[in-house]
Amino acid sequence: MSVSSFLVDRLHADRVGLAALRLLPPERAHAVALALLRRVPPPGRPPTPALARTVAGLAFANPLGVAAGFDKNGEVFDALLAWGFAAVEIGTVTPRPQPGNPKPRLFRLPREGAVINRLGFNNQGHAAVARRLERHDPARGVVGVNIGCNKDAADPVADFVAGVEVFASRADYLTVNVSSPNTPGLRDWQAGERLARLLDAVLAARDRGRAVPLFLKLAPDLDDAALDTVLAAVAARPIDGVVYANTTTSRPTVLHGRHAGEPGGLSGRPLAASTTARLARIRATLGSERALVGVGGVATAADVRAKLDAGADLVQLYTALVYDGVGLARRLLRDLAAAERSGREPDGGAVRAPTSPAKSA
Ligand SMILES: Cc1cc2nc3c(=O)[nH]c(=O)nc-3n(C[C@H](O)[C@H](O)[C@H](O)COP(=O)(O)O)c2cc1C
After folding, report:
1. Do the domain assignments include residue 157?
2. Atom of ligand 1 at shortest distance to CA of 243?
3. Cystine design at 62: which of 51, 118, 178, 284 (Cβ 3.0–4.6 Å)?
4. Which residue, by CA, sits nearest to atom 18 of ligand 1?
5. Strand ranges (DSSP E) for 67-209?
6. What pLDDT, in 10s, does the model give residues 158-167?
């Protein structure tokens, strides 16, 4: 039996498959995981009608989405939807293809359930990703495109505008990403006159084409004052929602292992509590009409429920896929659906009132 057929056989028993993948360097393991996703027949999304919701005018079969960065080039969104996720955010995509930062640039921190990455928007560019999106069938689920600018962009605003122009007609929603830490200067677009200029430009581009929902993805490293300024800029404009949050450049907990000191964006468990705590503030400022997507350290149904209870309409995850595999979606859905039925918290905690109807934006 070849190594690859062994891995294919084992994907369903995915903890064994994962153990094999974990023997590979992280970026190689990711490439193999994408190849397996393309080859292994998915089990199909379990029906969970109680978890369905409408957000930003889009119908989501459940609140779970794959966060940007896992399917950067739009190669496996169909498979991820068929493994149970209601949505996949592909990208970040930049106008021109770019290789990203020198390797190694992706590091596992298993003890913390975390990852550090400094990939730097390695992606195949607008044209290649737009071609793959032609096979997107909205009946299978929601596919968003996360847009960015090239590292060497002469005019970053023009790169974002090009992203809107190319993907507005192809994606179910777009996310403007000004929050990745690995493109020098990108996060500066989260503030002041630059943010206003960028938002006005992408909104004007949207007005010229299809009225696709437009989200803004933020870094978890903004202090309260900076966050409030961004949210005020969003609230003053017809931006449909906020995705909170990207990876952090801070090191909120003591990290262990030989990669603990690597520079880059930290994701996974260490982000869970702090990103959830911030959601209530964002929801209070944005009001109930805007969509809020909670991201950061989600690995259990209790994590999903915590983000929803804090004000999120939808939840995304990435790092938990590295440790738990794509079968995680079905396990989370089973636990969430069971909790809905029993009226209990997913971790078996206190009885709560029946779930409120899905928020819609
Ligand atoms: C390896 C890796 C690559 C990522 N690439 C992107 C990206 O291209 N664009 C983006 O907006 N976020 C990217 N992210 C951030 C995730 O979308 C997410 O916001 C963050 O990892 C927190 O969620 P998690 O703790 O569930 O991973 C990436 C994360 C990881 C781990």
Report:
1. yes
2. 19
3. 51
4. 246
5. 87-93, 106-109, 114-117, 142-147, 173-177
6. 999 999 999 9
